[in-house]
Specification:
Oligomer: single chain
CATH architecture: 3-Layer(aba) Sandwich
Structural class: alpha/beta
Low-confidence stretches: 133-154, 233-237
Number of helices: 10
Order of helices and strands: EEEHHEHEHEHHHHEHEH
Helix content: 40-55%
Strand content: 15-25%
Shape: globular
CATH topology: Rossmann fold
Length: 262
């Protein structure tokens, strides 16, 4: 399989696709999603789903990011539909990890989009000072010299975390949603999002809690070449590889199960 680039998107399209997945990654790995999330996205492709991964560069204006990624996706999808007309009749699902969840939510809140459902993995909606390393410390130091700058409000994401949840509560209209939280994820904020979505769509919102961490979705293939004579070291290497893949394989299974039942 070969990733191809169209209008700023990276995509994989199987011979007979059963649906389309629009993927958005986390803040610090979103610029090359076809590489950082390669194992997961290719696994979904191997199950018959067309994958369109849209890169983005993180800024403080998340509303602008949502608009830009939607425009980029629409341009790439329009081109693909000219090459493969059958794609335009397939269901489209959003899939996001971490900040990618917030961007999908803003797309579904601020714009009219045709999405059958959305999958949110490790939703993150922290304020800028908690999301960006050392930002809070830098603001405190700057306040000592120029207290009237008001950096706390000027250096905050737009919309703010509180405003984001308020917008979702009022305007988000995609009823089918899967929320996935990892048990050892200290950055996850699935709980407040699930409260909002279950309140809006109690019968069509699913929450799953599985083993893993915030970085589980970016696990990559580890090529372990056993020696000519199998040794205890080889056995240990294979064990580590199996453990490494266990959580991301469960993630893949949860996503596919939900897609099949939607």
């Amino acid at each position: 399989m070969y990733w191809q680039e169209v209008s700023g998107n990276w995509f994989l399209v199987p011979e007979q696709p059963r649906g389309i997945i629009h993927f958005l990654g986390g803040a610090f790995v979103a610029a090359a999603p076809h590489l950082t999330y390669r194992w997961l996205l290719e696994a979904l492709y191997n199950e018959g789903y067309a994958v369109i991964a849209t890169p983005f560069v993180n800024t403080f204006d998340h509303g602008a990011i949502a608009q830009e990624t939607l425009i980029t996706f629409d341009q790439g999808f329009a081109f693909l539909c000219k090459q493969r007309p059958e794609l335009k009749d397939l269901p489209i699902y959003g899939l996001g990890h971490s900040m990618g969840c917030k961007v999908h939510l803003l797309i579904g809140t601020l714009h009219r989009v045709n999405r059958i459902g959305n999958i949110f993995v490790s939703f993150n909606n922290y304020p800028a000072q908690k999301s960006i390393p050392l930002l809070g410390q830098a603001i405190q130091q700057a306040r000592q010299f120029v207290p009237e700058l008001g950096l706390e409000t000027r250096l905050e994401f737009t919309p703010s975390p509180e405003k984001t949840l308020a917008l979702i509560t009022e305007q988000y209209d995609t009823p089918y949603n899967l929320l996935i939280k990892f048990r050892s994820d200290t950055l996850d904020q699935t709980r407040p999002l699930s409260d909002v979505l279950i309140g809006r769509f109690p019968n069509t919102t699913t929450v799953r809690i599985i083993k893993g961490t915030h970085t589980t979705p970016i696990a990559q293939d580890v090529q372990w070449q056993a020696s000519t004579s199998f040794t205890p070291f080889d056995a240990f290497g294979q064990f580590v590889k199996q453990e490494f893949y266990r959580d991301i394989k469960v993630l893949k299974s949860e996503i596919l199960y939900w897609l099949a039942g939607d």
